[in-house]
Amino acid sequence: MNPPPASGARARLDAIVKAYDVRGIVGDGLTEDVVEALGAGFVDEVGAAGGRIVVGHDMRDSSPGFAAAFSRGASRRGADVVAIGLCSTDESYFASGSVNAPAAMFTASHNPAAYNGIKFSRAGAQGISLDTGLAAIRDRAGDYLDDGIAEVAEPGRIEQADVLADYAAYLRSLVDLSGIRPLKLVIDAGNGMGGLTVPAVLGTAAGLPALPLEIVPLYFELDGTFPNHEANPLDPANLVDLQRAVVEHGADLGLAFDGDADRCFVVDEQGGAVDPSAVAAIVGLREIARVRALGEERPTVLHNLITSQYVPESIEAAGAIAVRTRVGHSLIKDRMKETGAVFGGEHSAHYYFRDFWSADNGMLAAMHVLAEFGSHAEPLSQLAARFTPYALSGEINSTVADVPSAYTRIVEAFTGRAEFDEFDGLTVTGITAGDEPFWWFNVRPSNTEPLLRLNVEGEDAATMTSIRDEVLALIRS
């Protein structure tokens, strides 16, 4: 088949290369010839010719074929490929970090079955965004689609490797769960990669000793068609089965992983969702205490600007430095490296660890929650309440054709009673006096859709609800 013309190649790539990764509908822009060209462009951009790269994939039907096509393109440009097969995204980060090699992970994370994509890492699990190499990979791939991939004199080899046992052992070395009280938990893998990693890390499938955990599995069968529900726990509709099962089984808590198992959501014994900001505070305080005991006087912890105000409050009260960041996983990985932060937390349940090459790891966050909860006798609902003193709206999306006009309406309505900043989207913070309850909200446009995303927090539920409703009326008018 003749390569498409330059304009066609560029258009295909522009449609699927996003700010932080590649994402698209299989067969519509995202095809094996495109993926092979991206593999070649990736090797050129990260300078992997004569070295090695890691390639892994999730359980989607198209993922093995895409991983093979990418590996072909990479080997043609001189890179040896370590194909680790089925894995979670954080397992691919482990492989990248432990052997200090660039990596590509084939997954569309929480997106529906029709989608697939690629998450790229430089050596040491360092993130790649549009501004730090992804645009160059896209442009190189466009040239290869136009002109064909020029094979080097000594193409690389492709070899298979299984890193699951090493990954599981490494996580066990970071968080010791052997001494916690016995816990019963329901885990919903959503037919995603948690079905592979949970039995290895929290069970005995990787040959590790049994932990004091009784696990009730939900949807552990790897199935990229997602026959039970979408593997997107951020949508409350996809937590319903887990919430019901926790109550029915009398479990102590529940965990839900997204499709590529790099994010973890927590449910308490009553079936209530634990806010990711509470998880960020719990894990952040544990990491602060750990490194301070080792002599690090003022560790740094990152939080994005949409987490609860309680997160920086608790970080600073523990004697650490709280650093506010924009939203976005590649950006936060970069900031983790720049600041030397021990931990970073996002409202979307991405949690980043210095001891995990500053990459995000949902399983590691879950283990910290189990360790903290398992050292106390109180139910999780009580523990979580202590870390959720304020009222949060959660993220609310609105279709907006004219974002600047919506911003103008908001600024006009809140001028004189709030302060504004545009660090990431528009953050509006109430000017309060005396005993007035505090509040703030943030509106951010989506990178890929005509949406405005709203997050609101108030000192109490009534304040949050009042501000939320007022802002939504302005956005949607």
Automatic annotation (TrEMBL):
Q: Does the keyword Magnesium apply?
A: yes
Q: Can you cite a GO biological process for this protein?
A: carbohydrate metabolic process
**Alpha-D-phosphohexomutase alpha/beta/alpha domain: from which residue to which, for each copy?**
16-131, 166-271, 292-389
Q: According to its UniProt record, which protein family does this protein belong to?
A: Belongs to the phosphohexose mutase family.
Names of required cofactors: Mg(2+)
Signal sequence interval, chain numbering: none
Report the domain of life of the source organism.
Bacteria
Please name one Pfam family that this protein belongs to: PGM_PMM_II
Instruction: List the Gene Ontology MF annotations in alphabetical order.
Output: intramolecular phosphotransferase activity; metal ion binding
Residue span(s) of domain Alpha-D-phosphohexomutase C-terminal: 395-473
Query: Mind listing the UniProt keywords for this protein, alphabetically?
Result: Isomerase, Magnesium, Metal-binding, Phosphoprotein
Protein's name in the database: Phosphomannomutase/phosphoglucomutase
Is Lyase one of the keywords? no
